[in-house]
Amino acid sequence: MAEWSGEHNMMGISPGQEQHNFALRLQSFEALLSASISELEMMLPEEEISGAYDVGEEYRFYRDLKSVVQLAKQEVFIIDNYLDSQLFDIYVADLDPKITVRVMTNQVSSSLDNIARKFAGRGNFELRASKDVHDRVVLVDDRCWVIGQSIKDAAKKKPTYIVEHTANTMRPIYENIWASATTVVKS
Q1: 84 and 149 within one domain
Q2: Number of folded domains that form the chain
Q3: Which residue has the higher pLDDT, 3 or 65?
Q4: Per-residue pLDDT tens for 151-184?
Q5: What pTM was estimated for this model as a whole?
């Protein structure tokens, strides 16, 4: 509709009206272009997430994973077998208490259990244990990322990665494991 902006008359229009119509068409095309660019930007992955981390790039990994977790509006579901207190201290501590945080791991150390119990005081939190998990996965609302190394050791001694994956194929797998996992801590 942008190309037909302005007033038209079968008998013709004045040069002033042509100029006015031209200005209206420009405004309409600019609005269309701006809306198209915004829509395309929403489809692109976040620029700041580099995806690959060499040895020693622990801070870049932290910053990128934290930005992924901060995207949450409803829920964060983290699967990692080798968690420690930093998961709570630096990744999920600042989340709005209305956001549900679920964590599934294979190994629940006493220190992880202690900090999880304290974190549970915020509400909307659950920690479960299952021997059926191996990979590191972070599900945030309707998006999913797979991580190469455990969150606590990422990029310390070996390179690692964060790759966005299709959530609708990953979520059912981990929801099934979650359903049969042992509840360790629940708000």
Answers
A1: yes
A2: 2
A3: 65
A4: 999 999 999 999 999 999 999 999 999 999 999 9
A5: 0.74
Question: Does one domain contain both 100 and 12?
Answer: no
Q: What CA–CA distances, in Å, run from 3 to 7, 9, 15, 94?
A: 11, 15, 17, 48
Greater confidence (177 vs 25) lies with 177
Q: Which residues span the domain enclosing 179?
A: 52-186
Q: Are residues 103 and 168 in the same domain?
A: yes
Residue 103 CA neighbour count, 13 Å, CB half:
32
Nearest Cα residue to 181 out of 107, 113, 120 = 107
Question: Looking at the structure, do residues 76 and 38 belong to the same domain, yes or no?
Answer: no
Cα separation of 71 and 80, whole Å?
19
Handedness of CA 37, 39, 41, 44 (dihedral sign): negative
